[in-house]
Design goal:
By secondary structure, this protein is of the alpha+beta class. It has four helices and eight strands; from the N terminus they run ααββββββαβαβ.
Amino acid sequence: SGTLVNALAYHFAELSKAGGEYRPGIVHRLDRDTSGAILIAKDEGAHRDLSLQFETRKVFKEYVAITARVLDRDSDYIEGRIRHHRHERIKMTVTDDEEDEDAKDAVTFYEVSERFLGYTFVKAQPKTGRTHQIRVHLASVGCPVLADQIYGGRNCLRRSDLVPGVAPDADEILMPRQALH
């Protein structure tokens, strides 16, 4: 059905089962529409070793993103407990409620690489590995990832977003997905 799991099952006779029935072999995942590397383990031993490296923070993860709006600090930590949104099933949210048992601590470090008129090119290093962590943290400080439909409200970047008055026939899509790699 066009998924990574289906492709892995087709190409490999054996995959680690440590990731569970729906994620055989998958050690590390990415949000949909985020590009990057995914780690796959063929056996349980490798899966266990790789998972432990993530758990003990021996794996350094760095993402680059373009934000809609300009971050005001050159670098900073965003600390915010993350939980599922109460009304929107696919969305996560930051809460400051220390008593919320469903929320998990999350920390993201970011460093601005370059600022543009209305946008920021930024490097982000998640210190924890929560669902949508970078996306929800950047949105929580008012600078969602560009073209992030869930947290930024738009699912693409069009020429007319950058150049006012573009004719409808010339209004091409410049970025068809969220700007996170």
